[in-house]
Write a structure and sequence with these properties.
277 residues; alpha+beta; 434 Repressor (Amino-terminal Domain); Lipocalin; 2 domains; 8-stranded antiparallel β-barrel; 8 helices; 10 strands; 31% helix; elongated; Cro/C1-type_HTH
Amino acid sequence: MDQRQMEDTAGVSLNIRYLVAQFPSISVASARLGINRQQLNKYLNGSSIPSLNTLRRFSAVFSVPTEALALPLSEMKRAMQAGPVPALGTDGDVFLRVLSGAAARSAPALAPYVGRYFRYTRIPMMPSSLLRTYAVVLQRNGTTIAKVLERFSFPGTPWRLQEIRRSQQVVTYVKDRIQTIDCGDTDDELTPGFAIFYPNYTSGDQYLNGYMLSSFSYGNRPIYTSAVVLQRLAGHRHLRSDLRACGMVPCDDPSIPAEIRDCLNKQENEPTYHLAG
C-alpha cells in the first residue's frame, strides 16, 4: 500500500469512527448498518477499508454522499444533509434518536450512580439460586453505559467461555426511573433485556431495586420477568475476588446481604415466565 492509499484509508476510517460514534453502542451501529460487528471494528481501526457497496450503506443511513466519505472529516460534515442520525421515517430510526437524546439528557442525573456493582437476579429454572453478576456503570462521551459480565456457573469452579456472557447496556433516567436497555454481547447475539430501577434519594444507600424483562439465549427462548437488585461495591475492593464470587449462588448464601435476600426471596418477586412455548 503506497502513501496515498494509506492516507485514503486513514481518512475513511476517521469518518466512519465519527459516524458510528453517533450511535449509543457498536452493537446498535452494527445492527442499524447491517454490518457484522467484527468487520465494523476493522473499519473503525483502519485495518480494512469498506467496499463501495458498504460505503453506500453508510451513505443511506447518514444521508451523506458516498464520495464524501473519502473527504477530510470537516468537509464530510459539511456534506451531510440531515445530521448524523437522520429521520428516515422508520420506527427504528425514531427509536435510536429518542434513545440517544434520552441518554444525553440523563447524564447529569446518573453521574452519582457511576461505579461498580454486584447485580442479583432470580433464576427461573433454578428457584433455589440467585445469579450474582458483575457490572460497571460509567459515563463516556455524554452517555451512561453499564458493562455487565454474567457467569452461568458456580463460584469456585473453573471458568469456561461458554458459561460467560458479556454485554453492554445503555442507561437512561426517564420520568423518575432508571432504565437499562441491553445492547447485546460481544458475539453480536442480541439477547433482549430491559430493566427499571427505583432511584435512591438517601445519601449512602448502597442498593438499587427494580424489575427486569429478558429472555434466554437458548432453547425456545422463553421471556421472563424477575426482581433485580444492584449492590454498590466499595472502591477499594479487589476485582479478581469480586469476579470469582460471580455465578449462581444459593438464595440463603450468607455472603449476600440480608436486605437483598429478603427482597429477592419474597413470594411476589419470584421470576415469572411469559409467552413460553
